[in-house]
Amino acid sequence: MESSAIFRLSSPPPSFLTTKPNNTKTLSQTPWKHRTSLPTQVHCNKMFVPGFGEASPEAKAAKNLHQFFTYVAVKIVAAQLQSYNPEAYKDLMDFLDKHSLDDGDKFCADLMRESSEHKSLALRILEVRSAYCKNDFEWDNLKRVAVEMVNESNTKVMRDYVQETSH
């Protein structure tokens, strides 16, 4: 079966593959070392956000969501355990009293190393965290709610300022 997208070796190469002769003299044989005095301008429709160092604002938000998903997973697992395994629920609550959920990965790693019973709790939390993030979290709703919150708070701040300054 012959395809028109495949080039025959005997036919001349397509025009976009052939190089055109360069009649201008170059300053250097290595064009990547040649510098111009004009700055390179990047055309982008997004805002530049300074001061975030190694990560973008989205990466920082993702990190916070990652921590939040751990918190949600712990709440889900705790609610499940409370109804069908009160002993494991008590173990999880005791562990929560002694360990912070500020760093979800550290919390799960510490829980996993506590004992074999705690290891199964940690694995369940990891499983629920992943499933919640992939299947249950409403990403579109997050964007809608965040935009609404920003618009409402901007309006409130501007309204309050106008009221303060007009009296």
From TrEMBL:
Keywords: Carbon dioxide fixation, Chaperone, Photosynthesis. It comes from the Eukaryota. GO terms for molecular function: protein folding chaperone. SUPFAM superfamilies: RbcX-like (SSF158615). One of its GO terms (biological process) is photosynthesis. Pfam families: RbcX (PF02341). InterPro entries: Chaperonin_RbcX_sf (IPR038052), Chaperonin_RcbX (IPR003435). This is Chaperonin-like RBCX protein 1, chloroplastic. It comes from Spinacia oleracea. The lineage of its organism: Eukaryota, Viridiplantae, Streptophyta, Embryophyta, Tracheophyta.
